[in-house]
Amino acid sequence: MVTPRMFINLEEVYMLEDPRLQMEERNIQHAIIGDVMTRLPEILQSLTKSRLSSLATVNQISGRSKMKKEELADALSAYLTDPEQLKSIVLVTDADEWALLETFIKEPSIQNNELPFGQYSYFLERGLVFSFFSEGKLYVLMPEEIKAAASQINLSELNKEHGSKQEAYEYIAAAAHLYGVIKLDKLVHIFNSQNSEAVTEEELSKYAGEMIERGQNVLLHDGVLFNGFVANGADADKLAELAQDLDSKPFYIPEKEELLRYADLSYFEMTPQLAELKGFVLNNMTKDQELVEYLIDDIQLACMNKSSMQELINQFENRKISFKTPVHAQRVISLLAEVYNSTRMWANGGHTLVEMSAMKEGEDQGKGLVRLVDDSENVVTKVGRNEPCPCGSGLKYKKCHGK
Fold first, then answer.
1. Is pTM beyond 0.85 here?
2. Which residues fall within 8 angstroms of residue 309, CB to CB, at 6 or more apart?
3. InterPro entries under this entry (predicted)?
């Protein structure tokens, strides 16, 4: 545990507000202070028993709880220089980590005080690399013995296997992001229909487990994949409820290129309706581009989760973006209804309400769509100060968006 520091003066406070200096300080906190060492036995012997135990736990060294410090160091040295163990460690890295791994193998060290900690933390936590802070400089390196073990691996072949696994990871992340909840056998069907090399449900289950171990926000329960946001805090009964009717639910399945865009958790489809809402807010309510970007992002997520109209209105209030006139209020609420109808929803297997409505043969195809306000050019209803606010909050306009 790191002891909280006390700031000596305001200059130090300002320094820590600089992201580069914050990164440097974080790197130093995890580094060995002193001369750079390149031999694995020497490095391991310099560590505390607590640090060695942590490395042994992460690497699941058998019998570690009963080992003395020297025994832990020896066991870790044997494990980390075993080419087969190295393969298992590096196969679950992401693309950026793989590229950094190749640099660690080729170069004596990386000297960069501002090297983002997240880029190398996975290797550091497992003992593949170590960091040193010496004479004001940060060095991150792979010990010589681990480099020798890596040289015995056919990295070209391993990279192909790594690429295949990465693609499976992307499908899992994309499915969790787009669908919220999906049975693993359904995802297997989607994957195999879009790729020449088939994957089994058992393999996808294993890959999902690896992603969860790496801290990815997904959950696997009884053969069902959940977005961590959807399953947050849910017990087994709630998870079973969320998984109901999945076999009969129609799923929106885009082409591979579009589907895998959803592996980026910040991605969403910028629909014409969202673009129109964004333009209206920028032109009529605030000129703060960044503020509106965050607003649109959160509104899209709220719609994806089938939130209430009041929750969508709250996104404006939380950012102190106010409606200047009743007409603005009506227009925004109408635009929000259109955004809501055209957003891909977790509850609908990634389909929009418009698409779901179109699937209902012989029924009113407008049924199920949200229509709150008719904002056509010829119909603009004036809202009195004592009338209900158009946002649907139940409050009088003067107590809500007429303030």
1. no
2. 333, 336, 337, 340, 370, 372, 391, 392
3. SEC_C_motif
- Taken as a whole, the chain contains a residue count of 403
What integer pLDDT is reported at residue 402 of this predicted model? 47
- Who's near 368: CB < 8 A, 6+ residues apart? 353, 356, 357, 360
Give the closest residue to 353 by CA, choosing from 390, 286, 303, 391. Answer: 303
Mean pLDDT of 266-280: 94
C-alpha–C-alpha distance, residues 266 and 228, integer Å:
15
Q: What does DSSP say about strands 130-134 and 224-227: parallel, antiparallel, or unpaired?
A: unpaired
Q: What whole-number distance in Å separates Cα of residue 37 and Cα of residue 131?
A: 9
What are the helix (H) ranges across 47-107?
49-58, 69-80, 83-90, 95-106
Which residues have C-beta within 8 Å of that of residue 219, sequence separation ≥ 6?
212, 225, 226, 227, 228, 231, 239
Q: What residues have CB less than 8 Å from 276, skipping those under 6 apart?
A: 335, 338
What residue ranges of the chain are covered by domains with CATH 1.10.10.10?
158-232+239-260
pLDDT at 196: 93
- In this predicted structure, the answer to whether residue 353 has a pLDDT above a threshold of 80 is yes
Quote the pLDDT of residue 5: 40
pLDDT at 111 over 60: yes
Contacting residues for 103 by C-beta, under 8 A, at least 6 apart: 110
Return the bridge partners of 130, or none.
Answer: 141
Q: Where in 55-180 does DSSP place strands (E)?
A: 110-111, 130-134, 137-141
The runs of H, that is alpha helices, within 180-288 are: 184-194, 201-213, 228-231, 236-242, 256-261, 272-284
Fold (CATH) for 158-232+239-260 = Arc Repressor Mutant, subunit A (1.10.10)
- Given this model, what pLDDT does residue 371 score? 57
Q: What is the mean pLDDT of residues 243-266?
A: 93
How much is the mean pLDDT over the chain?
87
- Beta strands 130-134 and 110-111: pairing type? unpaired
